[in-house]
Amino acid sequence: MIFRRSFLTGAAAATLSMPTVLRAHTEEPFVLADEFQPREVRVREQHAPGQILVFPRSFFLYYVFDSERAVRYGVGVGKAGLAFKGSAIVERKAEWPSWRPTNDMIRRNPDRYAQFADGVPGGPGNPLGARALYLYRDGRDTYYRIHGTTEPWSIGQSVSNGCIRMLNEHVIQLYEQVPVGTPVTVL
């Protein structure tokens, strides 16, 4: 366990030492606002190591990795009325996941989503980005995910259909740290 803590602290320090600059389908580089850069923070001791906490109103996800310590990431969250709330468990993880919009998404916005009704294979153009953590409640898929994004400018906004979006490089870091079975609480 000492090795894991040392590794996580070292990984967090390396992550926190450089700003996130991306090229997202444009020639203009995208620079994530400083407030949404990953950083190690203190959390209340009531939050046990090994859990994920999401605070949609402030656009932050916390991965608690040690007693009273977490890595905080900026996230994009669901639009009003579409966001996931409550508790879930990461029951599945996928690298470069495929994606299909839900029937509700297609019904709400057919002009945008009907073209994807047969699904989109995994890869850099896929809306779920580089990694996805699938959230389940009572053994059932909630259809909500913590995932990467092809729209990095959406971090810090309520724009998704309910999922929790992260920059691809950040969701890759989280994916590597979080095992299946990790509890997630969206407050």
Automatic annotation (TrEMBL):
Annotated PROSITE patterns: LD_TPASE
Taxonomic path: Bacteria, Pseudomonadati, Pseudomonadota, Alphaproteobacteria, Rhodobacterales
Pathway: Cell wall biogenesis; peptidoglycan biosynthesis
Protein name in the entry: L,D-transpeptidase
Family note: Belongs to the YkuD family.
Keyword annotations: Cell shape, Cell wall biogenesis/degradation, Glycosyltransferase, Hydrolase, Peptidoglycan synthesis, Transferase
GO cellular component annotations of the record: extracellular region
A UniProt-annotated Pfam family: YkuD
Any one GO biological process: regulation of cell shape
Active site as annotated: H147, C163
Membrane-spanning intervals of the chain: none
Molecular function GO terms recorded: glycosyltransferase activity; peptidoglycan L,D-transpeptidase activity
Record domain L,D-TPase catalytic: where: 50-187
